Amino acid sequence: MRDCGLQDAEIRRQKAIDEWLPITGSRNAKWWYSAFHNVTAMVGAGVLSLPYAMAHLGWGPGVVVLVLSWIITLYTLWQMVEMHEMVPGKRFDRYHELGQHAFGEKLGLYIVVPQQLIVEVGVNIVYMVTGGKSLKKFHDTVCPDHCKEIKLTYFIMIFASVHFVLSHLPNLNSISGVSLAAAVMSLSYSTIAWGASVDKGVQPDVDYGYRASTTTGKVFGFFNALGDVAFAYAGHNVVLEIQATIPSTPEKPSKGPMWKGVVVAYIVVALCYFPVALVGFYIFGNQVEDNILISLEKPAWLIAMANMFVVIHVIGSYQIYAMPVFDMIETVMVKKLRLPPSFLLRFVVRTVYVAFTMFVGITFPFFGGLLGFFGGFAFAPTTYFLPCVMWLAIYKPKRFSLSWIANYICIILGVLLMILSPIGGLRTIIIQAKTYEFYS
């Protein structure tokens, strides 16, 4: 009897912890929450670098890579939505839980958690820098002549100050308003980017050849561009956590509304990615900047507005990617270290994390150069082929069946992406680190 009482007490404790943790704390989301959470997670500021990626890929390979990435990642996202409740009565609320089911308790953690953390922490650092740069661009655009020059460091600190407040919202559903605003902003600044490009018209002496002049530069640039495209499709790292917020019953499983939201999100992704990439490259050719808004200097008010839209969007994106990290840290604190769930614990954990990402962003403001590296090293596995590997391990489709062939094609392409893009990314990092003026 005593053992039963202790067991019941432990079950109640675990239930109370699950209701406190940010991923499982609220399960009343609607299908449209899935739509704008996925848009916010996926359509990041990386969309503005797609014309630059096209300048390194060229028309033919560039279009193929963009279309294939859209198709493959939609397929692997569908797999993850399907696998969320593959075991009756159980939900895989976190990416690593699905990995543990596919590969075993320990191996699943070793495979998934490091990659997921690299993606989520890396994105948060990149967005810390992106938010600061966009604020600086806004300031310099609206006041080009009379205002005092302000260092990028201070703009990153201003951007971080918002997250010192927002990061204390308890769970994913509580940031739904922020995420909705971010999703609207992503569609807005993407439209401004390609619309203003069309208005500017094709530039004189436009050149659609490869941006680099040497063979080595072309090869490394091509590899790095693959990573930039992979970085643009990063939503898989939070998709199970988003689905965990949707209610589910045997009659109405969560995969129905989740998939509806994913389809809407991917339509928005297509409306953002393809026009920006293709129109931007068509207008500016291989002279397009790594952020197309820099190539578009006029009209000043529109470019200033677009940069402020980017700021609002990356605020929401930062929170979407930070929430699973908060969940991991807080889970370790309360389940492994058995610290009591409290406001103080949550306040300290989240404040320290935001301060850490701000510090790294300030110390390495060329962190955006890591897009190509991270795009291949971590984003490609978690987005392009890890869901396929788990699908094969769990469902074991018949050899040479359509499912078997489709999954192995995705795995092969994903592995190639993982191997090639970090090579170009490392070269870009070295060049930027050597040439960057830290106090500019």
TrEMBL record:
Record's subcellular location: Cell membrane
Residues annotated as domain Amino acid transporter transmembrane: 28-424
Transmembrane parts of this sequence: 31-50, 57-78, 107-129, 150-169, 175-196, 262-285, 300-322, 343-367, 373-394, 406-430
Domain of life: Eukaryota
Signal peptide: none
Keyword Membrane in record: yes
Record's GO cellular component terms: plasma membrane
Alphabetical UniProt keywords: Amino-acid transport, Cell membrane, Membrane, Transmembrane, Transmembrane helix, Transport
InterPro entries: AA_transpt_TM
Protein family according to the UniProt entry: Belongs to the amino acid/polyamine transporter 2 family. Amino acid/auxin permease (AAAP) (TC 2.A.18.2) subfamily.
PANTHER family (UniProt xref): OS05G0424000 PROTEIN-RELATED
Protein name per Swiss-Prot or TrEMBL: Amino acid transporter transmembrane domain-containing protein
